[in-house]
Inverse folding.
C-alpha cells in the first residue's frame, strides 16, 4: 500500500467512525425533541412563554462545568443553540421585533442566538408592537442596550427578560436587551435592572447624584448605564434584599422622580479574566 | 397536589430527562470532535483543503434518509452545521472572501452555513484575493450566482466547488457559488459547470445559439444561466461522458470562443415537489 493509499484508507475509516457517531447523535436528538414537544404542551396549558432564557442559561452553565476538549464552551454552546432552536421551532415560531438601527455584528448575534426559523420583524417601535399583541407567549423584542426606547419601559408585564451575548468574554455590559412577558423562573444568579429617573427641574443627573444613589443601593452593582440626562440603569446582582424597601429609600431623595424594576434575568456566563 | 404544582413537577421531571440526554450528547460530540481532529492531521499531511463540501453533502444525504419526527431535515441540518462548524473551527479558521454587494438574506445563508467562527472578509475582488494566497487549504470565496465575476473564472486550480443553499425547496438555481481549491472527492451525483463564451463579432448570444449548444451537450442540463451577452453557464448532471470530447465538439462551432469546465460540486439535496 502506498503512503497516499494508506492516508485515504485511514480517512475512510475515520469517516466511517463519524457516520456511526452521527447515527447515535440522531437518536438522542430525536428523543430530545420528543421531550421538548411534551414540555411545550405543559407550557401551553400553563400559559407560559415559549422562550425561557433562564432555562437556557441553566443549560449553558451545566455545559460550562464539563471538559469539552478539543472543543471550547463557545463552540459547544453554538451546537446547543441549534438544538434548542430546533426544539423551539417545533413548538411555535417566535415573533421577534427588532429595533431598526441594529448594526450588522449585533444582528449576527441575534441570528446566531435564535436561528433563522423565526419571524424577524424590524420596526421603529418594537415595544409598542409587543405591547399591542394579546398572546405574548411567542413574542419578544430585541433592542440595543443603549437604545432611547429604554426610557419608555415601565414596571409591568413587558420587561427585560434576557440579554445578548449570553457568554461574556471581555465586558459584562450587554450588547442587546431582550424584552418579553415576565419570566417565571428565578435562578440563584439573577440580575435586576433598576431604572432611576431624576427630576430635570433639579438639574441634569450629576456624578454626585449617581454616587448618592449608588450608596443607597449599597450592594454589588454589576454595571451602570446612563440612558439620558435624567435617567440611569443599575444592574444589581441578586441578593436577599427587599427591593420594595430599596425603591422607597431611593425615592426619598427629593430629586428622584421614579425608581422601578424594569427587568430581571439570569446572569450571563462570565468568562472575563 | 394542586394542578399548578403537578404541572411544575412534570416540567421539572422532563427537564431532568433533557439534562440526562444532554450529558449523553456531550460525550458523543466530544468524541466526534476528537475524530475530526485526527482527520485534520491526515488532511494537513496530504495537503487537502479543510473545507470539504462534498463530504458535507454526504452527511446531509445520510441524515435525509432517516425519520427525524418531530424535527424536519432543515432543523436537523442546522444542528449538524453547528457540529461540523465546531469541528472545522478546531482545525483552523477559514478565510472567507465575500463579494461586496451580497444582500442581507444571502449573507444570513453564509453565516448559517459557516457559522461565525471564521474570518469573513468582504471585498470587491474576492477571486483575486483568493488567487493571491499561497495556502489555499483554508481559503474560499463566496460570490452571487449571477455575479459578473463569473466571467473571469478560468479552468484551473480555483473553481466552483459548492453552492448555497445545500437544500433546495423550490428552485435548483443556486443563490451563491463557493469557490476554492479543486475538490478531490467525487460523488455519484456531481454537477459540472460548463462555461461557454461566444465570439461577439458574430453577434450577441441568441436563443438559436443556446439551443444549438444545448443539443450538442445532449444530456440532462440541471440549469442554464446567461452571465453576459456573450457567455452562458450550463450545469450538467454527472454522467459517464467524455467532457474533453464534449468541449471539442462545442468549440467546433465557429461562433464559440471558449468552452471550459469551471466547477464541479456535489448536487444539493433536492426537495422540490
Amino acid at each position: 500500500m502506498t503512503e497516499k493509499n494508506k492516508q485515504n484508507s485511514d480517512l475512510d475509516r475515520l469517516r466511517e467512525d463519524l457516520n456511526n457517531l452521527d447515527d447515535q447523535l440522531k437518536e438522542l436528538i430525536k428523543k430530545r425533541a420528543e421531550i421538548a414537544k411534551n414540555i411545550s404542551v405543559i407550557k401551553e396549558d400553563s400559559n407560559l412563554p415559549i422562550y425561557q432564557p433562564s432555562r437556557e442559561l441553566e443549560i449553558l452553565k451545566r455545559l460550562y462545568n464539563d471538559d469539552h476538549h478539543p472543543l471550547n464552551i463557545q463552540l459547544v454552546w453554538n451546537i446547543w443553540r441549534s438544538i434548542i432552536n430546533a426544539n423551539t421551532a417545533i413548538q411555535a415560531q417566535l415573533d421577534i421585533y427588532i429595533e431598526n438601527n441594529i448594526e450588522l455584528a449585533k444582528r449576527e448575534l441575534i441570528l446566531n442566538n435564535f436561528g433563522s426559523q423565526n419571524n424577524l420583524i424590524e420596526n421603529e417601535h418594537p415595544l409598542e408592537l409587543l405591547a399591542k399583541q394579546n398572546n405574548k407567549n411567542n413574542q419578544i423584542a430585541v433592542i440595543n442596550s443603549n437604545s432611547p426606547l429604554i426610557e419608555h419601559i415601565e414596571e409591568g408585564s413587558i420587561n427585560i427578560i434576557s440579554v445578548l451575548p449570553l457568554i461574556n468574554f471581555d465586558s459584562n455590559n450587554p450588547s442587546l436587551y431582550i424584552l418579553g412577558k415576565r419570566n417565571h423562573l428565578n435562578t440563584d444568579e439573577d440580575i435586576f435592572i433598576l431604572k432611576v429617573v431624576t427630576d430635570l427641574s433639579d438639574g441634569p443627573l450629576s456624578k454626585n447624584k449617581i454616587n448618592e444613589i449608588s450608596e443607597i443601593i449599597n450592594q454589588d452593582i454589576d454595571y451602570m448605564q446612563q440612558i439620558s440626562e435624567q435617567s440611569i440603569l443599575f444592574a444589581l446582582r441578586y441578593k436577599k434584599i427587599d427591593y420594595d424597601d430599596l425603591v422607597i429609600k431611593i425615592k426619598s431623595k427629593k430629586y428622584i422622580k421614579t425608581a422601578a424594576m424594569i427587568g430581571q434575568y439570569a446572569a450571563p456566563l462570565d468568562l472575563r479574566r
About this structure: Chain B has seven helices and eleven strands. Chain B touches chain A through 57 residues (CB under 8 Å). Helices of chain B lie at 3-45, 53-64, 73-89, 104-114, 126-132, 207-217, 243-251.
